[in-house]
Amino acid sequence: MIESLELFEKARAAGGRAVMATLINTKGPTPRKSGARMFVGEEGRILGSVTIGGCVDARVIEEAEAIILNRASKRLKVALGDEEAGELGLTCGGNVDVLIDFIDFSDLADPVVRLHELAHREMQAGRRTALVTWVSAESDGSASSRKRMLIDDDGRVHGSLGNRMGVPGKQIVEDARGMMQSGRSRMLSYEVEGKTIELFIEVFGPPFPLIIFGGSHAAIPLVSMARVLGLRTVVVDGRPRFANRERFPEADEVIVGIPSEVAEGLTLDATTSIVLLTHDYKYEVPVLKRALSTECGYIGLLGSRRRGKAILDLLHELGVEERQLQRVRVPVGLNIGAQTAPEIALSILAEILAVRNGRFGGSLSEADRLPTGTVKSSVIC
User: Fold this and answer.
1) How confident is the model at residue 159 (pLDDT cuts 50, 70, 90)?
2) Integer Cα distance of 365 and 206 in angstroms
């Protein structure tokens, strides 16, 4: 999460000693995103929030003084009633699991500081990392959370969890690198010598890219709204009068070029979303074919269902398998009755977020009636 690293840098700039609280797990129908951070300084300064305020953040603040005094770490598990859970975005009662660490920002040898600084440098260079934290309790009930290692984009390991209990290092690196591709942070459990160990794997990296093919009127609010959501926006159009800074001052990059040729040179992976607004099949077909040959996380095509079917049929004739064609979202966006360009942009971004978070995009008031999907047995959720 880019927000976590930016918050860490703000806390480091303030200096001194502090506690860092990290949301590592929630249990409930609508869980908050793991990796949310909160810092409480020794003078009471607060940065960030592990939830959205309320009882959990208050508990962290209560624990902060003792943790700073004892230079300790603690795992805080909070069971919530329905009213408290509602304040945190859970549709009914649930549990929140928070890891609280002591940090001395003046200690350059502090592994927490050192590994976060390395992750921040890697992110600034456009690379991803995964921070692996041991969160299983020790025999005395305290959290062994100071043991960490950072895995970079090339699979190199910085730091160590220690040679304890035969920790499956190769498996952890493999799992962490897989999570780096999806951009998701989560807690994993491993069975080792008859015991269960728990690790929190937190993914850091540059903003997720949104590549928009076609500088149409709908692309303008799409870029503006995507920027608010923290996405890195790229606009591609072969017409200079449509692809320019005057038209897209907020875009991170504006490329004038033939969409199919530009697409061939782009890196499209599980963190990438592309939206085609060109409304011209001679551009759409090759771009879609290229995207479907990759692990691109979201592929949206503006157009009617009938037009979309015609394009998908053409792609099928060109050899694209049916299971791959099902990845194309056409008509693009959630069904919110969008008609204007801003409404269409909102619909598209809502669907992108739903897909990224494994959701269906329905109403929260009906969330308890929607299937929640499945997860691997090794994931604690």
Assistant:
1) confident
2) 33
Residue 258: the pLDDT is 95
Residue with tokens 């992976």: 269
Closest CA to 93 of 36, 55, 38: 55
Nearby residues of 20 by Cβ (< 8 Å), 6 or more positions away: 8, 11, 37, 38, 39, 100, 101, 103, 112
Question: What's the token pair of residue 8?
Answer: 């860490």
Please provide the size of the chain in residues.
381
Query: Residue 29, SS3?
Result: coil
Q: Which of 185, 148, 269 is nearest to 2 (CA)?
A: 185
Residue type, 61: I
pTM score over 0.70: yes
pLDDT tens readout for residues 216-226: 999 999 999 99
Which domains are assigned to the chain? 2-204 (no CATH), 209-356 (3.40.50.720)
Per-position DSSP letters for 276-294, written without gaps between them: E----HHHHHHHHHHHHTT
Nearest alpha carbon to residue 105 among 92, 118, 114: 114
- 365: DSSP letter: G
Q: Is 326 exposed, middle or buried (0-12, 13-18, 19+ CB in 10 A)?
A: exposed
